[in-house]
Amino acid sequence: MLLLKNGKILENGVLVSKDILVKDKKIIKIEDKIENLEAEVLDLSGKFVSPGFIDVHVHWREPGFEYKENIYHASRAAARGGFTTAMPMPNLDPVPDNYENLKLQLDIIERDSVIRALPYGAITKGEQGKDYAEFEELVDHVFAFSDDGRGVQDANMMYESMMIAAKLNKAIVAHCEDNSLIRGGCMHCGRRSRELELPGIPSICESVQIARDVLLAEAAGCHYHVCHVSTKESVRVIKEAKAAGIKVTCEVCPHHLISDEMDIPEDNGMWKMNPPLRSREDRNALIAGLLDGTIDIIATDHAPHATHEKDLTMRKAAFGIVGSETAFSQLYTKFVKTGIFSLDFLVKLMSEKVADIFGLPYGKLEENSYADLVVIDLEKSLIIDPEKFLSKGRNTPYIGEKIYGIPVLTLSEGKVAYKDEEVFDIYSYK
Ligand SMILES: [Zn+2]
Q: Is 303 strand, coil or helix?
């Protein structure tokens, strides 16, 4: 047993001091004061205790791309960021489009992951968009279905996949990108791409496919979740779809909230991601969309790459940046410390609301819930230094930024998944 004393939890949006008793995988008691002689006691001395975060969008790269990242490192990186549940995307080798392929990934998760990992199954075979994945044999073992990394181009393929997903009671989680509109772009098509004389990806490349898909989802009656929304038009389409009663939800990534095209200082591949950093207007629409509930949750799109794939020009670099280890702290620094979001609002976007929209039994700190929690020192700050990441990926454009609100201890199902050695010495408790 582990007794966490003097931590502060959010109760109706207010921080209150509570003791939390953890036994095996569960929280068994939360009270003002708990005395228990058998438990190992850890004094949190006023630090914030949050439900463990849930990230529905990570690239853990294994099996197939272990030179970029693997499950051992990615899960530790996620735990360090306060995540206790993560959903690895299926753009792997082999692609988990049947049970045999998925089993390879499940076995590595079982062996190496320090947090709960619920993988996706692919929508189409090999994510090639030509033939359906084996939905029936995957359904009991996957979180949802996605072809993330690319859009499903064929409308009928998406429509039929949605009908199958609806029957199986799973969500279709879509990376929306119309290939005919990419136009060879490597960043957002806007003011900054013109200044840097680089080919741009227009906003319609994303929004057009979302518009198609919400109508398909309406016809199919499936839960349709949009990945990494990045444009103001996407927000508008989703808002209208929700108003029409269509079962659509969506996520936004920290980098699209924090940065926009004008923050890209030069032709540097470290700033390349898909979807790209859009205009300031788009960024403002994303923040407004979160505040008015059009955008449901935050997900990182943690996308590690090897140095040789990112230390290149915009044209040549791979798409994606890492995010697991800095997501909460960056958002806390930019939005909570500045008074734009309350702490409660941010925490829910990364935990309770994620569980709610996908019907997961996680995301809350309460008696009899899983002991998935993260202890955060809201006063502590650090400077982002990729050399100190637990992820194998070093690809972040935010090197040298000062962030506040640093996770110092993460428990996943009652087990220590991450601890800051300088803050906590937990020897006997595992
Ligand atoms: Zn994607």
A: coil
Cis peptide before 94 (omega within 30 of 0): yes
Distance 71 CA to ligand 1 centre (A): 19
Paired sense of beta strands 2-11 and 14-23, if any: antiparallel
Q: How far is 106 from 104, CA to CA, in rounded Å?
A: 6
From 213, 260, 282, 301, the catalytic residue = 301
Whether pTM > 0.85 for this model: the answer is: yes
> If you measure from the C-alpha of residue 148 to the centroid of ligand 1, how many angstroms do you get, rounded to a whole number?
5
Q: Which amino acid is at 278?
A: R
- Determine the Cα–Cα distance for residues 239 and 230; give it in Å rounded to an integer: 14
**In this model, does residue 374 exceed pLDDT 60?**
yes
Q: In the chain, pLDDT over 70 holds for what percent of residues? A: 99
Distance, CA of 121 to CA of 152 (rounded, Å): 14
Separation of 228 CA from ligand 1 center, angstroms?
Answer: 7
Instruction: Specify whether 301 is catalytic.
Output: yes
How many other β-carbons are positioned within 10 Å of the β-carbon of residue 169? Answer: 10
Residue 424 confidence (pLDDT): 79
What pLDDT, in 10s, does the model give residues 320-355?
Answer: 999 999 999 999 999 999 999 999 999 999 999 999
Q: Residues, the chain, total?
A: 430
